[in-house]
Amino acid sequence: MFLAIKEMLHEKLRYGLIIALILLVSYLLIILSGLATGLANLNRAAVDEWQASAIVLNKDAEGRLSQSFLAKKTVAALPSNGAKLSQYSTLVKSAAGLKENTQLIAVASDSFIYKNLKVTAGKKATKLNEGLVSDKFKNDGFKIGDQLKVANSDVKIKITGFTPRATLNVAPVVYVSPKTIQPLNKGMVNAVVFENHSPSRGDLPMGTKLFAIQAFINKLPGYSAQQLTFNFMIGFLYVIILIVISIFLYILTVQKLPNLGVLKAQGVSTKYLVLSILYQSLIMSIIGVVLAIILGEITAIGLPSEVPIVITTSNLLISGFGLIIMSLFGALIPIRQITKVDPYKIIGG
């Protein structure tokens, strides 16, 4: 490691440029990972808060909640431990003129979904035409006690409290009672959700289909395509960091081949020189990744709340570890160059 540090201190500009490139690529990767997580949360956060294990939908709905409609006799044939759920996409407007596209979700007060909902301010909705709303409403200026008028109807919903992580398909959720949503959807049940003890596929009523909750999330409109796109870009950045490290270390190694030949002629082992390259790659990647993490955290704090970026510790650990591994793999080509150095040819012996 002594030789590696000594050489980096001697060639500050060259190694500084490599660190700057690692920093920029790592920063971009951290931001993309944060956006992927943030957008995923906007799509699925409400479903995660339900803490459900399975959901029963109409078999012709292709896993889409808004396209699923279950008849009363079908719902009655399902186990009673399931939570009946109705959904209605709409726009709501306050008396102050604030507007919000939203997902109305109706669940009974004795269902496990209602019991699992957390409240950050106010209280849960218990009466007709009351609603527990996503805390996004609070961020957008809505207050407890505000009356939300549902578009194209006479229904008004009074805000009784705010709940965290309540978004579905990128829209904030308003939890209401089944009677509140009845004038809007004629009392239709879209799905029955199970926390545990879900029915076996053989016991399902005709015309229904059981989805594990993760399979249901993957069917959310645009969710899988969005995550695949981000994963592709993130994977491509790993390849870029591998190529960048390989090219720069290869050029530096070729430029110092005469020096390496002299060192070998003086008895310095190939193993020592190889370790020196690995240490250089490790040190540069760690410095670049740490600086990128700091910059990424500052960026996340500075961005407006409308930007759905969520930088988690697990994402940082995975990204940082992956980048360091790619940097070490990037040193393989220069290492091969070092092992081929013949001191007699280099010094003309």
Automatic annotation (TrEMBL):
Give the domain of life.
Bacteria
State the GO CC annotations: plasma membrane
> According to its UniProt record, where is this protein located?
Cell membrane
Query: Which UniProt key words apply to this protein?
Result: Cell membrane, Membrane, Transmembrane, Transmembrane helix, Transport
Show where the ABC3 transporter permease C-terminal domain sits: 232-343
Which Pfam families is this protein grouped with?
A: FtsX
Entry membrane topology: Multi-pass membrane protein
Transport is among the record's keywords:
yes
Summary of the function given for this chain in its UniProt record: Part of the ABC transporter complex hrt involved in hemin import. Responsible for the translocation of the substrate across the membrane.
How does this protein assemble?
The complex is composed of two ATP-binding proteins (HrtA), two transmembrane proteins (HrtB) and a solute-binding protein.
Q: So what family is this one in?
A: Belongs to the ABC-4 integral membrane protein family. HrtB subfamily.
Fetch the PANTHER family from UniProt: ABC TRANSPORTER, MEMBRANE PROTEIN, HEMIN TRANSPORT SYSTEM PERMEASE PROTEIN HRTB-RELATED
Q: What is this protein called?
A: Putative hemin transport system permease protein HrtB
Q: Which organism is it from?
A: Weissella soli
Q: What is the lineage of its organism?
A: Bacteria, Bacillati, Bacillota, Bacilli, Lactobacillales
